[in-house]
């Protein structure tokens, strides 16, 4: 009889204990604890679909930018660059058209012809990371976000869209000799200019012929 009471007591204790514990996703729990209810994935998608196009429309032609940087660098940076703070690294939204001269695992090399000669650059097609697109847009202010983590999530989200939606169809079709029309972000160091080693993080890619 004593054993039966013991078993019943243990069973009751286990029942109460089980129903007193809440099992949930750690990310959801942390979200509730921090009070951070911002859906950054939805925010980034809205930014890509509805905000970024205005920046794309204002992109400067890459030949025009390079020519301006060579003769009036201060004007080029003042009128066309964007940066979050004081520093040498600044970002431009650029556009152009060039012929594919080489394709590697990580990028596509283009030859761009202009009035003042030819220009070579690389379109990044694999290791898309960093803040180039976010900052080149000139549309976001870090102070508008709750913290730097949220702000950096925008960059991560934009880069993910580029990797998942912009690059795959282009990489499947691109071949040497194709002419490509592009829009994207480029980083320049105002103190140590390197115009012979330009790399573009694309937001739009189109094979035109």
Commentary on this structure:
It is a single chain. Mean pLDDT is 84; it is low at 1-36. Strands 2-3-4-6-5 form a five-stranded mixed beta barrel. Helix content is 46%, strand content 26%. It has one domain (2-207): Envelope glycoprotein gp160, DUF2291, alpha/beta domain (OB fold (Dihydrolipoamide Acetyltransferase, E2P)), CATH 2.40.50.420. The chain has seven helices and six strands; from the N terminus they run H-H-H-E-H-H-E-E-E-H-H-E-E. The protein has 209 residues and is an alpha/beta fold. The longest helix is centred in the last third of the chain and has 26 residues, at 148-173.
Alpha-carbon distance between the termini?
90 Å
For this entry, what is the oligomeric state of its chains? single chain
The CATH topology label is OB fold (Dihydrolipoamide Acetyltransferase, E2P)
Helix count from the secondary structure assignment: 7
| Helix and strand run | HHHEHHEEEHHEE
Biggest sheet descriptor: 5 strands, mixed, barrel
**CATH architectural label:** Beta Barrel
Percent in helix: 40-55%
Query: Which blocks of ≥5 consecutive residues have pLDDT under 50?
Result: 1-36
**What count of domains describes the coordinates?**
1
Can you say what the CATH homologous superfamily is?
Answer: Envelope glycoprotein gp160, DUF2291, alpha/beta domain
Estimate the mean pLDDT confidence: 84
Name the overall outline. globular
CATH class: Mainly Beta
Number of strands: 6
Instruction: State Rg.
Output: 25 Å
Secondary-structure-derived class:
alpha/beta
- Output the strand order for the largest sheet: 2-3-4-6-5
């Amino acid at each position: 009889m004593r054993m039966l009471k013991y078993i019943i007591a243990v069973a009751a204790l286990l029942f109460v204990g089980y129903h007193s514990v809440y099992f949930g996703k750690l990310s959801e729990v942390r979200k509730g604890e921090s009070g951070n209810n911002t859906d950054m994935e939805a925010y980034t998608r809205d930014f890509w679909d509805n905000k970024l196009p205005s920046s794309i429309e204002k992109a400067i032609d890459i030949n025009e930018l390079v020519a301006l940087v060579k003769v009036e660098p201060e004007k080029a940076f003042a009128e066309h660059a964007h940066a979050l703070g004081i520093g040498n690294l600044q970002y431009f939204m650029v556009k152009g058209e060039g012929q594919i001269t080489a394709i590697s695992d990580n990028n596509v090399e283009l030859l761009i012809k202009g009035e003042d000669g030819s220009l070579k650059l690389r379109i990044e097609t694999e290791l898309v990371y960093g803040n180039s697109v976010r900052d080149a847009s000139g549309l976001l202010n870090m102070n508008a976000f709750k913290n730097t983590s949220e702000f950096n999530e925008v960059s991560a989200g934009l880069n993910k869209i580029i990797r998942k939606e912009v690059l795959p169809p282009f990489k499947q079709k691109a071949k040497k000799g194709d002419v490509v029309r592009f829009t994207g972000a480029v980083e320049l160091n105002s103190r140590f200019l390197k115009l012979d080693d330009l790399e573009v993080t694309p937001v739009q890619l189109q094979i035109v012929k």
